[in-house]
Design a protein that fits this description.
Helices cover 65% and strands 1% of the residues.
Length: 349
């Protein structure tokens, strides 16, 4: 009998896949940050946008599972400790570490108040202060951490799933989640005008809710290599026609890769993907400032990855993992971040 998404393996390669997606964001950003031109694209999306789409598809699956198997309070607390401490630390490191160093190395200027303004303005996850005073040189890309714009939309997706599951109840949740995905897809395709926050949310939320849709339909969706191949083709076609239509195939392909890639031991215990994502952009700015772009884009990418890994590791071991130890504080019986066990009908208990 064919496996379905309900049989998703507990031991999977999702952490390794997320690490690869974070690295793909670094590759994409290397062009504008290094002065090599615009990001490489596939159809209407950059490589970085495609990687973020994969992130959001996986997040939709995992977060919906988390909410469907936990109380609202425990769910909200766990999402907070996973997202916010690492984010706030990244703001502080940029404001009081990277920015003064860049001003010292380049032709910019810095005073501590600039760092305070940067942290306070952005502390609510919605990024409004992209620079830290005049710390970046005039020739640099005009933002210290252009990757952080996605986190506000991610938090909104968490809140949306948290509320929808609570209001809809167990029986109605699948229909409500699928309806949300369809409505968001239509709104994104017609480009509803509601300001930057709405535009950002509509760029990303359909991918999140595509992952959520696959979760609520997990008993009916096969985990099949032919379907994964079809999803890959459909995603490429959609990216050339209307990128938001790639949401469901991208989410399915990401889940299939997470289940089938033989990389279960990579980052299995230590997930550096979030740290790699939130620190790569400012590290790339510093590497460019130090002259790392003169060796070409490939060398610049390699230098950027190597230079970011220590920050990602420090974020995981010093901030994220200690914060995660508090995730069951409100409900120690909660096990919502674990994937569901294979169903008994397949004889795998």
């Amino acid at each position: 009998m064919t496996d379905t998404l309900a049989d998703y393996p507990r031991r999977n390669s999702l952490n390794a896949l997320r690490l690869g997606l974070a690295a793909l964001v670094i590759v994409s950003h290397a062009w504008p940050l290094g002065g090599f031109g615009p990001d490489p694209r596939i159809g209407g999306a950059t490589l970085g946008e495609i990687a973020v789409a994969g992130f959001f598809g996986l997040s939709g699956w995992l977060i919906t599972h988390s909410r469907c198997t936990s109380s609202a309070t425990a769910f909200a607390w766990r999402r907070f400790v996973r997202l916010y401490p690492g984010f706030l630390c990244a703001l502080l490191v940029v404001a009081f570490g990277f920015a003064p160093l860049a001003a010292l190395l380049g032709d910019g200027g810095y005073v501590p108040w600039d760092g305070v303004v940067h942290v306070v303005a952005n502390a609510g996850l919605y990024i409004t202060e992209w620079t830290v005073g005049q710390s970046l040189p005039a020739s640099a890309y005009p933002a210290w951490n252009g990757s952080l714009w996605t986190l506000f939309s991610e938090a909104l997706c968490y809140a949306a799933v948290g509320l929808l599951v609570g209001l809809a109840g167990r029986r109605a949740t699948p229909a409500v989640v699928i309806a949300c995905w369809l409505v968001l897809t239509v709104l994104a395709a017609v480009e509803v005008d509601g300001g930057r926050a709405v535009a950002d949310f509509l760029r990303l939320a359909p991918f999140f809710f595509a992952g959520a849709t696959l979760y609520v339909l997990r008993d009916r969706v096969p985990l099949d290599p032919l379907l994964a191949s079809g999803a890959a083709v459909a995603a490429v076609v959609a990216l050339h026609v209307e990128p938001v239509l790639a949401a469901l195939p991208v989410a399915y392909l990401a889940l299939w890769l997470g289940a089938r890639l033989p990389l279960r031991r990579v980052a299995a215990r230590h997930d550096l993907s979030y740290g790699l994502y939130v620190y790569a952009f400012p590290v790339q700015q510093l590497v460019a400032l130090l002259g790392g772009t003169r060796f070409g884009v490939v060398a610049y990418v390699l230098l950027s990855v190597l230079a970011t890994v220590p920050f990602a590791a420090a974020s995981w071991f010093g901030v994220e993992r200690p914060a995660l130890r508090l995730r069951h504080l409100l409900d120690p019986r909660d096990a919502a971040d674990r994937l569901p066990a294979p169903t008994a009908r397949h004889g795998r208990r």
